Amino acid sequence: MVLKMSENYTPEVSAQITGKVVDYNPSDGSVKFDIIAGLDELKEPNGKLSIAENDDVKQNQNKEFKWNALIEPRLFN
Predict the structure, then answer these.
(1) 8 A C-beta contact, residue 60 and residue 39
(2) Residue 74: Cβ-neighbour burial (10 angstroms; 0-12, 13-18, 19+)
(3) Ranges of each domain in the chain
(4) How many of the other CB atoms lie within 10 Å of CB of 8?
(5) pLDDT per residue over 47-76, tens digit each?
(6) CB atoms within 10 A of CB 17
(7) Which of 60, 59, 62 is nearest to 33 (CA)?
(8) For the whole model, what pTM was predicted?
């Protein structure tokens, strides 16, 4: 779970997101994930302040987060 921007532009905690760790950088604490489930939780809000994007562009499944920005991270084997 991470902090995300809701449709009405208020911060809220996302639902659970599942991903596979692709890379870890211990110097700055960043972790790169290949998102398996919950990618829709990371979408930008679609409201009056949003910028229209081309629907043909597929959303990238690789996302990078700082370790301390993750809320209750869990390790599954």
Answers:
(1) no
(2) exposed
(3) 3-69
(4) 9
(5) 777 666 655 445 678 999 999 999 999 988
(6) 21
(7) 62
(8) 0.73
Distance between CA 64 and CA 74 in Å, rounded?
A: 16
CB neighbour burial string for 18-31, b if at least 16 within 10 angstroms, e if fewer: ebeeeeeeeeeeeb
- Which distant-in-sequence residues (6+ apart) come within 8 Å of 36 by Cβ? 18, 19, 20
Residue with tokens 């009056």: 48
What DSSP assignment string belongs to the chain? --EEE-TTS-EEE----EEEEEEEETTTTEEEEEEEE-GGGGSPP-STTPPP--TTSPPPSEEEEEGGG-SS-----
For the chain, the average pLDDT equals 85
Task: List the 18-25 sheet strands across, edge first.
Answer: 18-25, 30-37, 62-66
